[in-house]
């Protein structure tokens, strides 16, 4: 056996644990979903088959389009808010806090919501946003409103609020990481060249933070696109998303239909990410 | 006093209550001269430079340039430009855009700022690299770009923070002469921070040697090297022995020493024995151990050493001309 072959074999052996884990827990399930998506089904049974009915139904239904549009809307608004809040928080942590211990402490505070499950975090909004919740009572007693606001809870507002609450940290972390890598003398060099604070932000910090923003965006977009539980809880069942459609189909034991929906969602998300990666090279950051 | 003279009056920098970085720095720098701020690390030279640049606030004192106190102006309005130690080129911008950065900040349109930046790049012989990115350049090339970026603002004073320290020795000497040439051509003041006495001696019209947050001695290169005022200056500049003559510290250049093996002059020199001989190419450094003195180093030209028969352990008399002794305080 030549050295070349032995090296190749060694490489494969070293990679094999990961290959095995990914094959069993990622590749096989995806293949299973793709296979099942071509199966046939009746109202009370499903059977192995190779037919396109699930896809034909899915791709010609007007419900699919409206559900996708709604999901894109959730994704876009959530992304924008997560970006604005995440960037601001990361900027504050990275450039305004000079001492490392304080930086670490504040960073830990950002992670506090993650010390409990996301279901609990969502439920904890209910007493706050409800018809007789803290928010409405406060606004009423301040005299800002005469009627309790109905749209605070079980609404799209509540869904987006919960998304932003749940996912902003996923934006803060990579953006903060990118910002901490920016050489501070670059900012001095920009100031030396006469750049104002805003010009430093737009001409130096923002371009150099792009990879972090992109990584955070991938997190936020994939999480929102695939979510079903937040939408169900926070909209009180009144709003739909792609994830909820799949979840409902599974509830009705319509596995072939659910699989087809899942495959379409997977392709959609992969397309979105590949478009995002066209704009920024994130490899430097990994 | 010229408009372009830079005058620092009692400039101080305190960090907190007890840490003094710079204490009462007072110096007038003639416009168009090459100045080196020299000293060991932590002596306050970089802080002084950063205060002139405006990247560090002054705790007290005034900095006057072009007839106004610039101590509280923002960096870009001082008439200074800074070249950073690691060059601080923007990694996301091409070489041309790096140089054009300050013009872009001033809102100058793309065509004119690129034309101007190209001129500057041509001046530092980097014209062919305009489209490259900083990561694709060598250290020396990055430095030229940084220089062009600083000079595009047409400063009265260019501030250079250890500009040569990141280069390999060969390139360092090459860039050193280019800096000197550029300074003569442009006729503006260069203030160059360094911890290398060779660099300071080679470049400076005036050296300001700092130690412990204060100016230890300021003067021309010849002044500082030939007439060190303190033991610190003599030791830091190198090439000096510090002797104890009648209880007073005296500096004596290593190349102003003769080693007498005949011992005829025993009455007027110091007797000792050769403890170490180091060959340096053009000269040989001979270390002589003398009782009741620190070791004395004599620098002897190569041909003189070969004519002599000096070897380790030999008894010699260290002799010198009295006028070469320099009293230290």
Keywords:
heterodimer, A: 286 residues, two-stranded antiparallel sheet, 13 helices, 74% helix, 1% strand
What's the SSE blueprint?
The complex is a heterodimer of chains A (286) and B (329).
Chain A lengths: L2 H34 L3 E2 L4 E2 L5 H8 L1 H35 L3 H12 L6 H6 L2 H4 L4 H8 L14 H25 L3 H9 L4 H30 L2 H7 L6 H10 L3 H25 L7
Antiparallel strand pairs in A: 1-2
Chain B lengths: L5 E10 L3 E11 L4 E5 L6 H9 L6 E6 L2 E2 L10 E4 L11 H11 L4 H14 L15 H13 L5 E5 L7 H18 L2 E6 L2 H7 L2 E6 L2 E6 L1 H6 L4 H7 L2 E6 L2 E6 L3 E4 L9 E10 L3 E7 L6 E6 H6 L7 E6 L5 E2 L2
Parallel strand pairs in B: 3-8, 3-9, 6-7, 7-8
Antiparallel strand pairs in B: 1-2, 1-4, 4-5, 9-10, 11-12, 12-18, 13-17, 14-15, 14-17, 15-16
Largest sheet of chain A: 2 strands, antiparallel
Distance N to C terminus of chain A: 36 Å
Which strand-content bin applies to the residues of chain A? Answer: under 5%
Cα Rg of chain B: 24 Å
Q: What portion of residues of chain B is helical?
A: 25-40%
Radius of gyration of chain A, CA atoms, in whole angstroms: 24 Å
Question: If you average the pLDDT of chain B, what whole number results?
Answer: 92
The main sheet of chain B comes to: 6 strands, mixed
Q: Which assembly state applies to the chains in this document?
A: heterodimer
- Span from first to last CA of chain B? 31 Å
């Amino acid at each position: 056996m030549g050295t070349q072959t032995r090296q190749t074999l060694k490489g494969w052996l070293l990679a094999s644990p990961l290959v095995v884990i990914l094959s069993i827990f990622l590749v096989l399930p995806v293949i299973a979903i793709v296979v099942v998506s071509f199966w046939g089904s009746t109202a009370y049974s499903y059977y192995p088959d190779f037919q396109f009915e699930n896809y034909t139904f899915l791709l010609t239904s007007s419900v699919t389009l409206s559900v996708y549009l709604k999901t894109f809307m959730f994704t876009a608004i959530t992304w924008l808010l997560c970006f604005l809040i995440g960037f601001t928080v990361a900027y504050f942590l990275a450039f305004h806090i000079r001492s490392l211990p304080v930086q670490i402490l504040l960073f830990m505070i950002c992670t506090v919501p993650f010390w409990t499950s996301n279901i609990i975090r969502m439920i904890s909004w209910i007493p706050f946003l409800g018809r007789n919740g803290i928010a409405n009572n406060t606004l009423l007693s301040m005299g800002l409103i005469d009627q309790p606001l109905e749209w605070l809870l079980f609404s799209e507002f509540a869904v987006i609020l919960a998304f932003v609450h749940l996912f902003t940290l996923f934006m803060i972390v990579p953006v903060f990481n990118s910002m901490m890598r920016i050489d501070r003398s670059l900012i001095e060099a920009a100031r030396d060249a006469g750049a104002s604070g805003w010009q430093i932000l737009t001409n130096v910090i923002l371009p150099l933070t792009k990879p972090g923003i992109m990584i955070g965006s991938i997190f936020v977009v994939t999480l929102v696109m695939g979510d079903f539980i937040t939408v169900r809880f926070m909209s009180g069942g009144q709003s739909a998303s792609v994830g909820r459609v799949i979840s409902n189909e599974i509830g009705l034991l319509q596995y072939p239909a659910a699989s087809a929906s899942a495959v379409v969602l997977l392709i959609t998300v992969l397309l979105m990410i590949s478009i995002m990666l066209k704009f920024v090279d994130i490899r430097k950051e990994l | 006093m010229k408009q372009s003279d830079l005058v620092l009056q009692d400039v101080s920098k305190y960090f907190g209550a007890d840490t003094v970085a710079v204490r009462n720095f007072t110096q007038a720098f003639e416009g168009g001269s090459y100045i080196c701020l020299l000293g060991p690390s932590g002596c306050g030279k970089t802080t002084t430079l950063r205060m002139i640049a405006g990247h560090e606030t002054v705790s007290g004192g005034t900095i006057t340039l072009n007839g106004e106190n610039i101590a509280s102006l923002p960096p870009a309005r001082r008439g200074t430009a800074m070249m950073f130690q690691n060059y601080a080129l923007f990694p996301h911008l091409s070489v041309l855009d790096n140089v054009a950065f300050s013009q872009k900040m001033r809102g100058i349109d793309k065509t004119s700022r690129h034309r101007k930046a190209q001129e500057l790049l041509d001046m530092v012989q980097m014209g062919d690299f305009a489209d490259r990115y900083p990561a694709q350049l060598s250290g020396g090339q990055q430095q030229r770009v940084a220089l062009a970026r600083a000079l595009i603002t047409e400063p009265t004073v260019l501030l250079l923070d250890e500009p040569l320290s990141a280069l390999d020795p060969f390139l360092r000497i090459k860039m050193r002469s280019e800096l000197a040439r550029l300074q003569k051509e442009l006729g503006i003041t260069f203030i160059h921070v360094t911890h290398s006495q060779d660099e300071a001696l080679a470049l400076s019209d005036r050296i300001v040697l700092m130690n412990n947050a204060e100016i230890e001695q300021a003067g021309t290169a010849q002044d500082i090297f030939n007439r060190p005022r303190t033991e610190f200056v003599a030791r830091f500049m190198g090439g000096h022995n510090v002797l104890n003559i009648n209880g007073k510290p005296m500096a004596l250049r290593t190349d102003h020493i003769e080693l007498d093996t005949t011992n005829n002059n025993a009455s007027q020199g110091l007797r000792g024995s050769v403890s170490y001989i180091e060959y340096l190419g053009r000269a040989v450094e001979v270390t002589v151990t003398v009782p009741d003195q620190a070791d004395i180093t004599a620098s002897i030209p190569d041909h003189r050493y070969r004519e002599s028969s000096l070897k380790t352990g030999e008894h010699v008399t260290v002799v010198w001309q009295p006028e070469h002794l320099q009293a230290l305080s």
